[in-house]
Amino acid sequence: MFGDINTSKKRTLQEIEVFDCQDCSGILTEADRLKRSVLVTRLRELDKKLDSLVCQKARVSWLKYGDSCTRFHHSTLRWRRLRNEVKGVEVGGQWCEEPCTVHLEAKKLFEARFKATKDLGVRLDGVEFKSLSSEVSLSLIAVFTERK
Question: pLDDT tens digits for 25-68?
Fold first, then answer.
C-alpha cells in the first residue's frame, strides 16, 4: 500500500522549500541541513513509488485492453516524457533553463564523457601471466582420437 503519494510529495516539497528559504536567509543550521537531506531522500523514494504505481496501472491496463494504442497508453507515454525532460542545468553556480544553454551543456557533458582516448587507463607493467607449456599448447590443437 502506497497511501496518498501525491499529498505526501506535496508536503515533503513544502518542507524542503521552508529549509531552502532558511538557507537563502543564512539561518540554516547543520541539523536543518541534515533534515533537508533526509527529506530529499524521502522525496526520491516517493518518486520511485509513484513510478512503480504508474507502471503497475499501465500493466493492468495492458492486460485488460491488450497492446492497443489507447488514450491511457499515450497519456502514460506523454507523462513519462514530460517527467524525464531536462528542464535546466547549473552553469557556473547559476541555474539556467534556456534551451540553447541546456543543449550546449548536455553536448559538452556527453562529449567529455565519451570522447575517444588512446590511453585506456590500464597498466600491466610487471604483471606476469601464467602460460601453458608448448606440449600442452600442441595437445590442444592435436587431432582427437577416441580411447578404448
Answer: 888 888 998 999 999 999 999 999 888 888 888 888 777 766 66
Distance (Å, rounded) from C-alpha 47 to C-alpha 12? 11
At 147, list the grid cell. 580411447
What's the DSSP call for residue 121?
Answer: S
E runs forming strands in 1-148? 89-91, 94-96
SS3 61: helix
Alpha-carbon distance 84 to 80, whole Å?
A: 6
Predicted TM-score of the model (pTM): 0.41
User: Residue 39 CB: number of other CB atoms within 10 A?
Assistant: 19
Same-domain check for residues 27 and 76 = yes
20 three-state secondary structure: helix
Q: What domain range includes position 57?
A: 1-84
Residue 100 lies inside a defined structural domain of this protein: yes
Residue written as cell 499515450? 74
3 state SS of 88: coil
Sequence-separated (6 or more) residues with CB below 8 Å from residue 24: none
